[in-house]
Amino acid sequence: MNSSTTGRISALLLRYFFLLRSSWPRLLEIAYWPTVQMIIWGFTSIHFSNSSPELTAGGILISAVLIWDSLFRSHISYTLSFLEEMWSRNLANLFVSPLRPWELILSLATVSMIRTLIGMVPAALLAIPFFGVSVFELGLPLLGFFLNLVFTGWAISQAVTGILLRYGLGAESLTWMLPFLLAPFSCIYYPLETLPGWMQIIAQYLSTTYVFEGMRALILHDQWMPELLVKAFLLNAIYFILGLVIFCLSLRSARRRGLLLQSGE
Fold first, then answer.
1. pLDDT value for 64
2. Which of 191, 197, 221, 246 allows an S-S link to 162, with CB 3.0 to 4.6 Å?
């Protein structure tokens, strides 16, 4: 990257840093929700431990919650940063500058990764003294699970930000809906064969399914299956490209129709 590109990306990152620094409730909220999720599901795991030992073996329920939340956090962090530009009606200012779309995407992805780590690391560390469960014991595969789900979150975000560009803040609810739409098919807390046949067909086309199937195999059977992560990465690459196409087409349409100046409801 040349110096002007680096300068534009750095300027955006500095803007998002100042937004976070200026409001301590923002920082508290980032870490708050993953920690609350971990505590609630941790005690749920303890409650079911006597009746369903496999459900809690190796802290699988707590691990699944933490790993799934990395997808949700990466998506929400990316999309909220974009929404803040819409709420402040700053999109037009950004796109009349020399800023290129891919520079905005890279900036949003970087901020998303930072905010996701701020949220997830405290929750993962607190799970150790609270419940004696450490996701870090998964070793190097944990990095593969985490990056895959972050990548999935960004793929969803590409499509959502494209829709927001085209339809404005009236489509804001999609930010919260889409990750939860994937959850029943992603086999987060149960194996793939638990689902009815028609849901299994859909689940096989989701990268998240292979992440959690791989996680269960590692925790319950101490079996590392890298081919599942490869499938997940390939699916994520396809979905990210599709999301990118949606974003670019929506941006072109928004520019042609003058929607960047009318990014409200």
1. 83
2. 246
DSSP 206: -
What is the maximum alpha-carbon separation in the chain?
Answer: 61
Determine what percent of the chain falls in helix, strand and coil, rounding each to the nearest 5.
Answer: 85, 0, 15
Q: b/e per residue, 172-195, with b = 16+ CB within 10 A?
A: bebbeebbeebeebbbbbeebeeb
The angle, 0 to 180 degrees and rounded to 10, between the axes of the packed helices 140-167 and 101-131 is 130
What is the pTM assigned to this prediction? 0.84
Q: Using CA atoms in the order 206, 159, 230, 205, what is the torsion angle rounded to 10 degrees? A: 20
| Under 8 Å between Cβ of 149 and 76 | no
Beta strands (DSSP E) in 12-69 are none
Tokens of 110: 């970087």
Using DSSP's 3-state secondary structure scheme, residue 101 falls into helix
Tell me the HSE value of 216 on the side-chain side, using a 13 A CA sphere.
18
| DSSP state at residue 97 | T
Q: How many CB atoms lie within 10 A of CB 200?
A: 15
Statement: residue 257 has pLDDT above 90:
no
Integer Cα distance of 21 and 184 in angstroms: 36
Structure token pair of residue 37: 């999720």
Distance CA 34, CA 118 (A): 10
Give the orientation angle of helix 101-131 with respect to helix 60-87, to 10 degrees.
Answer: 150
The pLDDT of residue 180 is: 82
| Among 86, 81, 106, CA closest to 26 | 81
